[in-house]
Amino acid sequence: MIVFATIIACALNGSESLIVFEGPRDWTFQGKVIVPETQSGPAVLMIGGGIANDLNWSTPGSLLIGEEPRQVTITGHSHDDATALVNALVSKGCAVMHYSTVSKDDPKQALYPYELSLTDPLEIMEIAESAFATFANLPSVEGRSIVLLGFSMGAQRAVNLAKEHEKVTSIVLLSGAQITATSKDDQGGNVHYQASKKMENPELDVYDYDGDGVIHLWEISGVLAIQARQEVGIENLPTKDSSGMPFGEPVLDLLQKPTLAIYGALDEHQSCHAVILSDNVISRPWLEVRVIPGVGHQLGPEKEGKMGPIHSSICKLVAQWVIDN
């Protein structure tokens, strides 16, 4: 439900509105809706990752670990990824909404990003459901198809939202987490990561999924996952993670809606899902999987464990795919 909406900018290229909607615990959450002057594409709801994201999907330049600051970004300055994605989508004629999962009603709001009250993924899913209902009922969105774009754990939320709403015509998964069950014991993590680190002399023709001549841990993890899944039988894999949220893969197979899954070649923990989703045991003509070289989980550059912003070429790729599908 929309509590109120305030237009914060009007320009030749459209308008931006801040909206407030209700979520779990009767708390309110803020979103931003950007509508291009000429709407020629579908509407896109962007769903942030983890169990908390601010309005612009910001990454802080540094964080205090204990009493010591630790640099997080390559430059040491904060950056946001939502704006880059929004600009690319709006340039293609898409109305877009992105939102924060940090409520001003939360008594721990001032402690973000270190601590918040809402940490249950099922409650974060409730926020996504409320954001969708708000977005779908806006005058600029009613009557249009909707694309869901989710990042990391937000990709899992996007898949589960798509299951509930026929207006969703396609899905974009960026560095999607909890997308596949990698073994019978998977509760929502890369079960084979440690085994991948211990493997000696892996064969290039077996493990080099992206064909770059380098074997990454995620490639080994993906192959080991495929082997483990074959041993137990896909029908015997867990369907939900430890929080009770369904894994993405069985839902996607049920929906069979056009889906783009993008992973980074430097993302050792999540890109194993790209290998599993591409396994030819199951034919998925509606699914396009891409692994982008030189980028990590944030789909930007990484240097000595520090992150850069999402690459502009990926934003353009996503926007064009949304229009084409």
Describe the structure.
By secondary structure, the protein is an alpha/beta fold. Helix content is 28%, strand content 24%. It has helices spanning 82-91, 121-136, 153-164, 193-198, 204-207, 217-232, 248-255, 272-277, 312-324, and strands at 2-11, 14-22, 28-36, 43-47, 58-59, 62-65, 68-71, 79-80, 96-99, 146-151, 168-174, 259-264, 287-292, 302-303, 306-307. Helix 3 (153-164) links the parallel strand 10 and strand 11. Helix 1 packs across helix 9 (312-324) and helix 3 (153-164) packs parallel to helix 7. The two termini are 29 Å apart.
Q: How many domain regions?
A: 1
Distance between the termini: 29 Å
Strand order of the largest sheet: 1-2-3-9-4-10-11-12-13
Helix content, binned percent? 25-40%
The helix-and-strand class reads: alpha/beta
The total beta strand count reads 15
Keywords:
globular, two-stranded antiparallel ribbon, Rossmann fold, 325 residues, alpha/beta, 9 helices, 9-stranded mixed beta sheet
